Amino acid sequence: MTIAHNLGFPPLGAHRELKRATEGYWSGKVPQAALLQTGAELRAAHWRLQRDAGVDLIPSNDFSYYDRVLDACAMVGAVPTRYGWSGGSFDLDTYFAMARGVQSGGRDVTAMEMTKWFDTNYHYIVPEFEPGQTFRLASTKVVDEFTEAKALGFHTKPVLIGPVTFLLLGKTRAGRVDRLDLVDALLPVYADVLGRLDAAGATWVQIDEPCLALDRTPAERAAYVRAYRFLADRAHGLKLLVTTYFAGLDDNLATARELPVAGLHVDLVRAGGGQLDQLLKAWPKGRVLSLGVIDGRNIWRADLATALGQLERARERIGADDLWVAPSCSLLHVPVDLDLEHRLDAQLKSWLAFATQKLVEVATLARAIRDGRAAVAAELEANARLIAGRRSSRRIHEPAVKQRAAGVSEKDMRRASPHATRRKRQLRLPLFPTTTIGSFPQTAEVRAARKQLHDGKLTPQEYDAFIADQIARTLKLQEELGLDVLVHGEFERNDMVEYFGEQLQGFAFTEHGWVQSYGTRYVKPPLIYGDVSRPKPMTVRWSTYAQSRTSKPVKGMLTGPVTILQWSFVRDDQPRAETAKQLALAIRDEVKDLEAAGIRVIQIDEPALREGLPLRRAEWPAYLDWAVNAFRLATGSVSDATQIHTHMCYSEFNDVIRVIEKMDADVISIENARSGSELLEALKEYKYPNEIGPGVYDIHSPRVPSAAEIGAALKRMQGVLNDRQIWVNPDCGLKTRGWEETLQALRNMVQAARQLRPVPTGG
Questions:
Q1: Which of 188, 336, 406, 583 shows its CA 20 to 30 Å from the CA of 672?
Q2: pLDDT (0 to 100) of residue 130
Q3: Which entry of 265, 512, 647, 700 is annotated as an active-site residue?
Q4: Is the pLDDT at 547 greater than 50, yes or no?
Q5: Do 124 and 713 contact (CB within 8 A), yes or no?
Q6: Which domains are present in the chain?
Q7: pTM of the model as a whole
Q8: b/e code 467-484 from CB counts within 10 Å (16+ = b)
Q9: N-terminal to C-terminal alpha carbon distance within the chain
């Protein structure tokens, strides 16, 4: 019988209960028992919600206190030696030390690397493997949560990160370790877990192998086959469902078919109908095919008629008994519940579906396959009416915006002179100039003032006075620290994308549309529903105010077009490249206004450029062409004397370092510290010509690096870069840090930079 199932549900809670409990635990205000109780309450609530939405098979172990890949590290005992883990039962404090680092009680340990989960804005903790790496079952979380659900009356489908994907996502820090050589050591732990789940009464186990949808070598494909033959022989009475998502299987389809498992899930949203035809040609009888037909990564209501057409084709070929219906991927990437939104206008809200509503869509489609279209005729008719209304809505299309975008030429995307010429006309700064990435701590006081303005308890004038005071004090602190290029601190900004979206046409916003970015960091992505334009200046006021308060240069701070695109829920009725061009033109207008107002350093952050790369390399050139052109379009109008900066963080930039040069920014600051200076290895091979600030310390950890530690990082940079190229800055913005640790870290950073500068000679 066709069933509706889900691959994963957001763990944060409708009101971010998990964030408050976890951060309370970190601060010592919430005991561990209370944190664990919050987790149990959220899991129970989410299981009930999914059952009530009509889901037949509900996942468990999709809940995490920080990150599911980190959970997998805990499960198999992949704990780097620096954390001092004794090898006993895995404890929560070691877990959080791996995620965040620790600097207390005589311990000073850095966090594990964090990077983007495929082409999403979610960050995962990167597994670390060492020479002689061994694995053992260290956490029974997956079994515990299955039995917890069973006791509440929910027979769930436990979810695991697949063994091959786990290894392929990992890295080695010391020595040479072939990750595939670790498969044989890892598989017995997975077999042990499966045995325990079987004993606990589980029927199906979902094993996520998204790496199978990427470009894979013959050796990697062989590792998949070897791994699942091993697990199939030891699965006891369990049925294994291998899940792939974010791309089509393409040349890995034969490998996927060969795996001796009971079912396979594929993402039809990202891969399209061509993959379905290939699958159906030779699908074996008695094996489940799960089709992800509801978009798990965007918030638009599904076109149920189109999705149902795909499912009916599959039913005709393989029968209803072997057909399952699901979202394309875990619903981790969308907000929890549209019903919490009370300020969205009715028409726009009718176009949307969050996690809870997407489950209803999945259940509706499964019912249509089981009982026929007549059983859901009312739902299909209402959906068709809403889909047609959105397509024809006049609020989506703005002819003037489309006409301007159509008129963009190659000349619009070029600076007047090459970097070497521009540099002579720009700022005169000492060697190793120091700066920060843009934001300073968003304290409880800053957040409270923003809420008071929202609630009408502060007048706009009072709020502006508060922001002006925050900026003035932060500029003074930066001057006292001795930073060379200052920032205004971004206290008026709730989020680096939301802030700009609020001032652009074609955007809408939610009250409770929170999505996890990493750990307890959640964002509320804007909704881009129509053509984008900038009605008036967005940042000029506070940038010019800041510059008026100091004689040192202050950076104008903007978010780039590709990052706004990537970190928003984007309209799906036109190519992403076209929306990026519209965004670039809006940012171009802001850049011109900042320059006209006397701002001589303008930073346009593009941390999402690498994240946006398609997962298949064959599709990279087309994406990089329009993504780089969007940045160049945003910056191409300025004079040689205006210095353009950009910033990127937490992605595998080694893949695209040569492309970054084509962006033609004068200075790029880029994450480097948390990834263990991998960027410098790339720069040994490729001589980047412009100026660059590889981050000297990790801002997503509360630990404070010493001046000696930062100095050592700078000396490593000197090994691959010319002294005149090097800027000194943290990995990323300081929004999430406290003031005490921020000031101490920056003091050490400035000290380290000054120690490398030539000593002036007397006259």
A1: 583
A2: 87
A3: 700
A4: yes
A5: no
A6: 3-64+140-392 (3.20.20.210), 399-407+434-756 (3.20.20.210)
A7: 0.90
A8: bbebbbebbebbeebebb
A9: 90
